[in-house]
């Protein structure tokens, strides 16, 4: 007893009793929290009482600690225990509360915690000695008075409604006893701070008990809109009991005799026939059977069981007060209630509640509400008994009524929630919770039954082969059913649970579809260690996966969700963004990893494919937003995609710069016989493929690049792209000009420049986008360059040749000199053979250019040769060596020119054919001369 130093022995007695009773008070809410844990829902209960109780216990604990002394030990024990219990209650409430209730609880808890800290720190630093104890004690008195005064709202409600239905009588008795114990404890310990609030609590408790005793003796008639319900027949076996209609004089306004007829037969069977439903109740203590029938109006009879007493029937007779018998009667009755009429009555009551201006007075609930709630509860039990398949697979009239009833129950809950201490609100919360659990189970069952394809996407499959059949969707009927369930759950205040179920299951479905592509994540280390060739298959699979997401999965998921959440599009938009965000973020990791590598021109096209896929993802996300871009989740995801897209775009631009560097640094001196250089083919093929296949992508990339450099002009966007293209071609021209100097033969040099410039020009002309960017002026200049190279070639080659066919220098003494003619023909033949031998191995790949060149050469050479040989061939008539000087006929010259620039094999074949033909001609001529000689000498 050294620790418990109580000066008066009765103080110890009352302190211990106060501790015991207070423990009972603290344990009173345990059934409530058991129900909360079982249902995993707070069922409409509020956290404020428990937070305030926690604050009160902590404050009194602090008071007892700073006061000190043996008299405070019992205060310390009970308040320490109470603080722990209330803290557990608050934690349980937070775990199972809805998001809005959690938010509200945290606000209240933060406010009380702040206030508690302010009191503790303020009293510690600014008040000292006994004054500190008094200040904290009287603050506790004020708080306790507020707590004890809280039941005054219940007292007012009892007085106004003259009903004790919603008065927690056992708790009121416990609080009264608790206040009495601590009041006595305060008297004997002479602690005014303990005595004052408990005295007030004791008085208020006595008032509550008195009111309960007074109003419990009175019955209360509750009326509501009258409805006519179907006839119902109940056969009841009773012993020593009577069921009879009440005299019509006991029911005001009745103008019709009761239609109930009671007939007693063998074995004491009583057959009671009655019409209607529970529309009024009366509490009659002296009713031997506890049943009263009130005839309120014609065709409406009311029966209500009250004050069940011990049955005087024998053990072989059914007990009217047995719960199972009464439940059977209730279920049979409820199953025959006219759904349309009771729905109309509930709608009318909800409408009446909406017109009430004074929300401080709780409304009087008609018995229709109780009947309506019981009907829903009965339907829930019926649906829960179905263990296989989807309960609402084929929606019937009963299903439609059940869903409409949940909608009405939600509206009723909302309407009654505006009034304080509304009776039966907790029951409505409970039944609504059960209904929502049923609907949520149904919702999840439907969601799990998607028609998702399961086969793996083969590595060779093309993105075009994917269609809506690859999407895990649902039948039209199931989508309509889910739409109804979602609407009901959100109306009932279970938006979080609804969205959580949808998001959880749909995410799993989408993840399963993504796994079909067998795309494995690639880390930065893998990229560094791997060769680009080994990464290309991964890029191809990633592009297919990203395209499937943007063109199929995301699009169809959005359509599905917008149909299911058609009445709550804003809710779905946020849900959808959060649903695809994880997938999108995971997809973006791969291109982000690739972008770290050094940009190389040969990788351009893979990165352009990646950029296109990222842009399609951005479009798919943009089309999913129905809130004008105001959702934070949407903005964050859009920004994340945009950042990765810009990063890949910068890599593409750097690859173009790398291509420029490659062109500038190419110093290969290998000659290609005047043909199009491999560098020209590579660069122009590279550019052509990029602009033809990725035109829009390149535009988008360069537009973004211009914006990043704070250049907003649309002209600047086009000029920036065209400038890149022009720079690359000019660098190529400069490099080709350098490579042309490697050719010692000037003619071949011009052929080389002509070939390559013609190839560049034709490549640009064949691409509308490239031609538009380069402009017509550039095309005209490049065409002029090609013509100039052609003229230079002809001047360097064929003009020099035909100089030997001129008339100058042939005449000697007024006659053609045969010697000079021989030299001229021999020189021409030698030069032509050399030109043909050399240039026949050259290549002009452009067929149009080749044809133009041959025509132009023939136009220069053939007329001059034909004229020259026609004039001077007679000088060699009769000469046996004519073929030595006039080696080719004009037709032969044209034929040989036609064989120029076709490559070695073709030229050799044609040359051999011409030589063979010439040999045949020579042999034939000799044979004819021999025959002529033989004839002249008479041998033939």
UniProtKB/TrEMBL annotation:
InterPro entries: Cullin_repeat-like_dom_sf, Exo70, Exo70_C, SWEET_rpt. One of its GO terms (cellular component) is exocyst. It is found in: Cell membrane. The chain crosses the membrane at residues 12-36, 48-66, 72-96, 108-127, 133-154, 166-188, 194-215. It is a multi-pass membrane protein. Gene3D superfamilies: 1.20.1280.290, Exocyst complex component Exo70. It holds the Pfam family MtN3_slv. GO terms for molecular function: phosphatidylinositol-4,5-bisphosphate binding. Keywords: Cell membrane, Exocytosis, Membrane, Protein transport, Repeat, Sugar transport, Transmembrane, Transmembrane helix, Transport. The keyword Cell inner membrane does not apply. GO terms for biological process: exocytosis; protein transport. It comes from the Eukaryota. Its main location: membrane. Residues 245-266 are annotated as: Disordered. Residues 540-898 form the Exocyst complex subunit Exo70 C-terminal domain. Residues 245-254 have a biased composition (Polar residues). Belongs to the EXO70 family. Belongs to the SWEET sugar transporter family. PANTHER family: EXOCYST COMPLEX PROTEIN EXO70, EXOCYST SUBUNIT EXO70 FAMILY PROTEIN. Component of the exocyst complex. This is Exocyst subunit Exo70 family protein. It comes from Ambrosia artemisiifolia (Common ragweed).
């Amino acid at each position: 007893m050294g620790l418990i130093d109580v000066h008066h022995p009765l103080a110890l007695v009352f302190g211990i009793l106060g501790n015991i009773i207070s423990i009972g008070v603290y344990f009173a809410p345990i059934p409530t929290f058991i129900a909360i844990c079982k249902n995993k829902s707070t069922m409409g209960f509020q956290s404020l009482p428990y937070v305030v109780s926690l604050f009160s216990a902590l404050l009194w604990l602090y008071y007892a600690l700073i006061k000190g002394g043996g008299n405070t030990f019992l205060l310390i024990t009970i308040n320490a225990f109470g603080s722990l219990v209330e803290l557990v209650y608050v934690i349980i409430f937070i775990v199972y509360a809805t998001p809005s209730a959690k938010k509200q609880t945290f606000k209240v808890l933060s406010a009380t915690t702040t206030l508690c800290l302010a009191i503790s720190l303020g009293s510690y630093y600014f008040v000292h000695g006994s004054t500190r104890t008094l200040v904290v004690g009287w603050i506790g008195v004020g708080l306790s008075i507020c707590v004890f005064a809280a039941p005054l709202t219940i007292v007012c409600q009892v007085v106004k409604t003259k009903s004790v239905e919603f008065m927690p009588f056992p708790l009121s008795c416990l609080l009264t006893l608790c206040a009495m114990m601590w009041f006595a404890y305060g008297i004997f310990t002479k602690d005014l701070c303990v005595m004052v609030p408990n005295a007030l609590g004791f008085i208020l408790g006595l008032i509550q008990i008195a009111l309960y005793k007074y109003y419990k003796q009175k019955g209360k008639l509750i009326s509501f809109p009258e409805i006519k319900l179907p006839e119902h027949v109940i056969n009841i076996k009773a012993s020593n009991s009577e069921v009879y209609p009440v005299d019509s004089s006991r029911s005001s306004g009745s103008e019709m005799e009761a239609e109930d007829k009671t007939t007693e037969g063998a074995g004491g069977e009583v057959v009671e026939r009655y019409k209607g439903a529970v529309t009024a109740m009366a509490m009659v203590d002296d009713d031997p059977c506890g049943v009263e029938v009130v005839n309120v109006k014609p065709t409406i009879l009311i029966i209500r069981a009250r004050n069940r007493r011990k049955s005087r029937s024998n053990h072989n007779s059914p007990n009217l007060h047995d719960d199972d018998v009464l439940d059977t009667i209730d279920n049979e009755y409820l199953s025959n209630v006219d759904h349309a009429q009771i729905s109309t009555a509930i709608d009318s009551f909800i409408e009446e509640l909406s017109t009430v201006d004074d929300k401080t007075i709780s409304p009087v609930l008609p018995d229709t509400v109780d009947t309506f709630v019981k009907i829903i509860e009965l339907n829930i039990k019926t649906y829960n008994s179905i263990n296989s398949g989807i309960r609402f697979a084929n929606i019937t009239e009963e299903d439609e009524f059940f869903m409409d009833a949940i909608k009405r129950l939600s509206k009723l809950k909302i309407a009654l929630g505006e009034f304080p201490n509304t009776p039966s609100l907790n029951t409505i919360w409970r039944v609504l919770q059960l209904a929502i659990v049923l609907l949520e189970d149904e919702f999840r069952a439907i969601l799990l039954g998607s028609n998702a394809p399961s086969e793996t996407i083969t590595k060779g499959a093309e993105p075009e082969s994917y269609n809506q059949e690859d999407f895990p969707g649902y039948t039209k009927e199931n989508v309509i059913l889910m739409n109804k369930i979602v609407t009901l759950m959100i109306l009932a205040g279970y938006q979080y649970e609804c969205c959580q179920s949808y998001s959880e299951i749909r995410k799993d479905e989408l993840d399963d579809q993504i796994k079909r592509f067998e795309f494995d994540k690639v880390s930065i280390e893998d990229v560094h260690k791997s060769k680009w060739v080994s990464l290309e298959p991964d890029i191809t699979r990633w592009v297919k996966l990203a395209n499937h997401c943007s063109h199929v999965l995301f699009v169809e998921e959005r359509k599905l969700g917008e149909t299911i959440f058609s009445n709550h599009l804003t809710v779905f938009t946020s849900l959808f963004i959060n649903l695809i965000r994880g997938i999108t973020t995971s997809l973006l990791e791969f291109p982000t990893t690739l972008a770290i590598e050094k940009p190389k021109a040969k990788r351009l096209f893979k990165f352009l494919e990646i950029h296109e896929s990222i842009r399609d993802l951005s479009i798919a996300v943009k089309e999913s937003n129905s809130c004008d871009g105001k959702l934070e989740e949407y903005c964050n995801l859009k920004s994340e995609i945009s950042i990765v897209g810009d990063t890949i775009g910068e890599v593409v631009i750097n690859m173009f710069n790398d291509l420029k560097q490659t062109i500038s640094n190419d110093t290969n001196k290998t000659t290609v016989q005047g043909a199009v250089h491999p560098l020209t083919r590579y660069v122009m093929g590279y550019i052509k493929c990029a602009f033809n296949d990725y035109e829009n992508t390149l535009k988008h990339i360069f537009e973004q690049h211009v914006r990043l450099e704070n250049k907003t002009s649309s002209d600047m966007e086009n000029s920036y792209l065209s400038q890149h293209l022009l720079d690359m071609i000019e660098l190529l021209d400069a490099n080709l000009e350098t490579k042309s100097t490697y050719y010692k033969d000037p003619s071949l040099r011009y052929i080389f420049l002509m070939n390559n410039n013609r190839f560049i020009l034709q490549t640009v002309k064949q691409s509308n986008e490239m031609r538009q960017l380069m402009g017509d002026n550039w095309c005209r200049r490049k065409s002029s360059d090609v013509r100039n190279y052609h003229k230079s070639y002809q001047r360097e080659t064929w003009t020099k040749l035909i100089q030997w066919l001129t008339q100058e220098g042939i005449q000697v003494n007024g006659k053609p000199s045969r010697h000079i003619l021989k030299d001229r023909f021999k020189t021409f033949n030698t030069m032509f053979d050399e030109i043909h031998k050399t240039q026949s191995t050259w290549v002009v790949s452009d067929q149009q250019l080749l044809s133009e060149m041959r025509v132009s050469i023939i136009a220069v050479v053939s007329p001059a040769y034909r004229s020259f040989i026609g004039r001077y061939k007679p000088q060699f008539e009769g000469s046996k060596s004519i073929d030595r000087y006039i080696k080719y006929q004009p037709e032969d010259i044209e034929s040989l020119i036609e064989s120029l620039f076709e490559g070695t094999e073709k030229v050799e074949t044609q040359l051999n054919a011409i030589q063979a033909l010439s040999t045949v001609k020579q042999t034939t001529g000799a044979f004819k001369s021999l025959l002529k000689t033989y004839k002249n000498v008479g041998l033939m």
